Amino acid sequence: MSTVTASQETTNSLAIPTTMRAAVYRGINDVRVETVPVPEIGAGEILIKVAACGICGTDLKKIHSGSHSAPRIFGHETAGTIAAIGPGVHQFEVGERVMVFHHVPCGDCYYCRKKTFAQCPVYKPAGVTAGFEPSGGGFAEYVRVMDWIVRDGGVVRIPDGVPFDQAAFVEPVNTVLKGVKSLNPQPDETVLVIGQGPIGILWASLVLRTGANVLTSDLYPERHSIAAGFGLKHPIHAATENVAARAREATEGRGADAVVIAVGGNGLIRTAMEAVRPGGKVLLFAQTQHGEAIFDPAAVCMDEKFLLGSYSSSIDIEHEVEDLVFNGYRNGFDLTRLISHRFPLEQAVEAIQVASNPCASSMKIMIEHETSETGA
């Protein structure tokens, strides 16, 4: 296989070092900032110099649960600059600013035909790596983007004027918008979003754009203040109020037409089922760990309440998401307002600690390798 090495300096690459710094997962709750080789790329592949990478809840679950073998380098909300292109790559150039999806479906299999892209066998393996088993790699200075990701739409150009940290939201916004479309809220309906961290606020603000009435629930008043900046004006203070009772009060006693659980853990499933009206929908968005959960089966059978799930992104809505994130930055949908902490890569362990212990003052945690400039 033809490769572009880390030390090669030709027209298809910038000056690239042979080694880099990365936050390496070595086992349960064990992440270390180490020096590792810069990955080499082959035909059809590109190398990205990472500028910004958000810490996602799924990264944290993998780190804390030991669900994945070690060593690995996580991080998949990645934006940066193309540092090298492999043989056969003609649609991108060195120096372009891009974000990258670490999963892309085949588009042809049974699951793709049914628009269930996250279940596609080609989608499941990660196609972006900073070394070791491919796992996203954004918690490193450089990532290698494999050929099928490059070929099938997984690399997205960032327009001039849009900073890297805004562009890093493209992947999470896609996952949320996919869920919103699955929920299909109507203008005469009321939707309760449980959890007002960065994902919960994304959920609530995108549901609000459908014309539905939106209730938001969170333990922290400070998060409701941030949500208000996105037009969300019906908070429920979960630390002092009964969430299900408040949902019924807001809907003439019926309960919300739909409830979204945008925070991890299974304990809120019962609350959501109590808060939703008969015939309404409960959507699980952050319940990504297998195990048992408790809910009332008669609520599904006799009350005809629907229990739904939505996971990962959809390539079908990629252009709509790009418009939301890129044009939205210029038109009031500035997602960088959700960032509470920015850490350099050398402090990645501290960044993961902050993200793992959410509090009133923490929202989106971003690892940034250089200033999140907007481009010329």
Q: Give the name of the CATH architecture of the largest domain.
A: Alpha-Beta Complex
What's the CATH class of the largest domain, please? Alpha Beta
The third-level CATH topology of the largest domain is Quinone Oxidoreductase, Chain A, domain 1
> Which H/E pattern describes the elements?
EEEEEHEEHEEHEHHEHEHEHEHEHEHEHE
State the low-pLDDT regions, or none: 6-10
What is the C-alpha radius of gyration, as a whole number of Å? 21 Å
Give the termini distance in whole angstroms.
36 Å
Secondary structure category: alpha/beta
Number of domains: 2
Q: Largest beta sheet, briefly?
A: 8 strands, mixed
Estimate what percentage of residues fall within beta strands: 25-35%
Tally of alpha and pi helices: 12
Helix proportion range: 25-40%
Backbone shape:
globular
| Mean pLDDT figure | 94
Number of strands: 18
CATH superfamily descriptor of the largest domain? Medium-chain alcohol dehydrogenases, catalytic domain
